[in-house]
Sequence to fold (418 residues):
Amino acid sequence: MQRYSIFSLARHALNDHAGWKPAWRHPDPKPNYDVIVIGGGGHGLATAYYLAKEHGITNVAVLEKGWLGGGNTGRNTTNVRSNYILEKNQRFYEFSLKLWESLSQELNYNVMFSQRGVLITAHFDPQTQALLRRGNGMRVIGSDAVFLNPDQVRRKVPVLDFSPTARFPITGAFLQPRAGVARHDAVAWGFARAADACGVDIIQNCEVIGIRVEGGRAVGVRTTRGDIGTGKIGIAVAGHTSRLAAMADLRLPIESHLLQAMVTEPIKPMLHVSLSFGAGHFYTSQTDKGELVMGGDLDGYNSYAQRGNLPMIEHVAAAAVTVMPCIGRLRIMRHWAGIMDMTMDGSPIIGKTPVENLYINGGWCYGGFKATPGSGWVFAHTIAHDRPHALNEPFSLERFASGYTIDERGVGPYPALH
Ligand SMILES: Cc1cc2nc3c(=O)[nH]c(=O)nc-3n(C[C@H](O)[C@H](O)[C@H](O)COP(=O)(O)OP(=O)(O)OC[C@H]3O[C@@H](n4cnc5c(N)ncnc54)[C@H](O)[C@@H]3O)c2cc1C
Fold:
């Protein structure tokens, strides 16, 4: 792999940058692999990278039906945080956050991880209590969390509505300083380049249309580019998990919903944290180009459409101007949607399935981008050893039968509410 550095940049500059090699190869599929990972998003690519790097399994293919990162990895609002309330979530997402902190160096690729802090505004006493409890839990496991008083919030985010007539007066805020945002495409590209350098075949425009199961064990896949045999299969397809599982006759506790996001026209730097509005469903951060990236709630009905719509723009914009009236005249430039595989407890499934040698990484709901390195790491461990790592053991498919669900929001089996 050609290393990226200030020296290689200077060397190539002397040659008008004509000598750069492609970041990864475009091989044809081989007839057999030790492991096939289905899905070329961040999770699939990270899994392939850690299989090669941590476990020495390099005869691996990542099969992607479209282009790398064209699924939710390239559609998300890129919040990376570990500010969960349940300990199993805290430990897993904190592990992932630690991997984020050295990911650019690990991959020799700038994923532009910006630890600008994720801040949730507080508006009511019970909410403040809940946020304090969450922060204390995080600190117990060694993570970072601080609670800001209104003056501190005003200094950190002066564009919020602190007027006496504010509809939701701000009584404080919960901040995780080490949290932040990253460049979504770069995460897919960085893992792809590093996995390719370890010998992994990354095969785009190769849709899996069937999973071959013989005697209760997965032995291969049928694809639009022919049949491929394999020892093990890892599914990491985000919004299509139940469709892939159905190819192996598995029915999952998942509903697929849409989540939309949008960006405004670019403006001068005005927001230096990633902000979540505590009294409604609205979150935003400012990109390096100056656009405000904004997201809100699920559409509320099942769909695979991957398209935005006007009612959700109105819903998000209403919450946005409630807490930041100064952006009321900004224009929305683009909006889009991704398919969210919502589980019955709002937490992901990372583990084995009843079919031998078939593993699932899915059901990420709103929050899988932040998990990308951690999820790839534990999924690779699970595939390599045929058993979960302690960090993903609680996220088994089996929990829905045993009742040990991980219900972060405490709303029960109602996917749309998670
Ligand atoms: C609008 C929006 C905002 C979000 N905001 C955040 C956020 O701020 N923070 C956060 O942590 N998370 C966020 N998420 C969630 C996050 O984007 C996802 O959980 C995460 O990116 C999932 O990554 P992945 O690699 O599993 O999936 P993907 O990136 O979707 O990759 C799966 C890949 O599988 C491919 N595939 C599907 N079927 C097949 C097949 N049959 N054969 C071959 N390939 C197939 C798809 O083409 C796709 O490229 C958001 C999501 C959306 C939509």
